[in-house]
């Protein structure tokens, strides 16, 4: 869940992981289908980005708790400790990228929030989430191009010098 939100404790974690598993299974089938049907290259790339992000999050939530110790903002998790922090299907999705650009405090004269700490671009995110976001946003921006409807005018007509009469049948 985004920014460490929790959903229903251990059962919620397992349900979320199983949902991710179902999404990846469906995504595998769907990607194969759209590639075989020769969909727009842009649409296939966006679907692949969404699929790759879902797969990355699934792998994290299935195995991360078993092969890493619990991490925090103060230290990096060690790989292959004697015991991980969670079992199979209960791992956390790895948050890996953090780019705070400005760390400061609000001026005292600003109402309500004056004097409070301020950090510009504080979200921590991972490559998988970024992949899903880029795929969805690109689909939304370019949907008319990716899902262009073909009309009869899209097919060129062939002109011939053949005579056409009302009693002739054209196949």
Portion in beta strands: 5-15%
Radius of gyration: 26 Å
The largest sheet, given as strand count, sense and whether it forms a barrel, is: 2 strands, antiparallel
The shape, in one word, is flat
Query: What would the average pLDDT be, to the nearest integer?
Result: 81
Q: For the largest beta sheet, what order do the strands appear in spatially?
A: 1-4
Describe the structure.
With 171 residues, the chain is mainly α. It has a domain at 2-95 and 126-148. The protein has four helices and four strands, in the order H-H-E-E-E-E-H-H. Strands 1-4 form a two-stranded antiparallel ribbon. Strands 2-3 form a two-stranded antiparallel sheet. Helix 1 (9-36) packs antiparallel against helix 2. The longest helix has 28 residues, at 9-36. The chain is flat. The termini are far apart. 14% of the residues are buried.
Please supply descriptive tags for the structure shown above.
171 residues, mainly alpha, 4 helices
How are the SSEs placed, and which strands pair?
Blueprint: H1 9-36, H2 41-67, E1 97-98, E2 102-105, E3 117-120, E4 124-125, H3 127-141, H4 143-146
Antiparallel strand pairs: 1-4, 2-3
Helix pairs in contact: 1-2, 2-3
